[in-house]
Write a structure and sequence with these properties.
With 381 residues, the protein is an alpha+beta fold. 30% of the residues lie in helices and 31% in strands. The longest helix is centred in the C-terminal third of the chain and has 18 residues, at 256-273.
Length: 381
Amino acid sequence: MTARLTLLSSFLILLAVLAAAPARAIESPAEYISLMDYDTGEIIYEKNGTELMAPASMSKLMTMVMLFDAIRDGRVTLEDEFVISENAWRKGGAASGSSTMFAELGSRVPVKDLIYGVIVQSGNDACIAIAEALEGSEAAFAEKMTERAREIGLAKSTFRNATGWPDEGHLMTANELAKLARYIIDTYPEFYEIYAVREFEWNGISQSNRNPLLYMNMGADGLKTGHTSVSGYGLTASATRNDRRLILVVNGLDSEKARANETQRLMDWAFREFRKYDLLEAGQELERAPVWHGTSRTVPLVIPEALALTMSRDARKNLDLKVRYDSPVQAPIEQGQVIGKLQVSAPGMPTRTYDLQAGESVDELGLFGKAMSALAALISG
């Protein structure tokens, strides 16, 4: 049988006019951009979003997932103390010249404070101490990071260390960083609150959170900056306005000032341009498909769950909704059986495909009924 492609009813065409397609591309000096709608998990705008890049300290989000997992599983408590080894101190402490929480060599730091040391101060010494405590070495910990990343759906990300320090094999994509941020917000809300903390003091040294959006009164409450000579300046951020949350990832900017200005501009643009549109209700019938050798000549195709998409207000008439199925559908058919697909597309937006189910059961005809059906089909051509 050949695939039959049909336009939706005039009702759905009207919906297409009322809904919206993604925005026209916005010019940005950022080399990588990923914009995600938190509620749906959809990437609603991207620039090189699927390309591997050096994530710098933004990969510490994965380091924290490993620690959060250990706390959730009962292997670690917030009161446990991890040792700052000579390795952690030299590679990530005051002696390293890198981002550090200034933990003293040989000191024992409570897990709760290490969390603040990583999230607020971006401490490399804290990251290495966590890695060594959980897996014995930073290299072994990085392997576990990659394994865990695959489990939560990060198909491309690969880790070589706990800090994000430059390594040719330590790579992520902007889209997967956005997905990781959403995972943290969803799975660990009690720890996510810490990403909004603006200042933390350890060993008599107070440091401010480097996330510039936290200081702009724009609804931002996380997550993590990054910078190396290889990656440029980056930020994985999230903000809420009017009960809507967006996640933004940028990377490859050339200065702290550019990072602050560009992320604010992109976040403002995203909240202004994009809206969540309720397109279809759960169980809504989209079309009736012809049935072959069935007690009913047609079967309704319904969408099992409500369909809502976050899209821009530009180019609304370009939203395209189509139903695709093999025609005719062979009886018997059970209610709830997947018998078609709904395709939703628009310029600049990847085509999204959703299952369509049979809205009712259709029994198969008996031998006599099949013969009569075949005869009728023969006569009608």
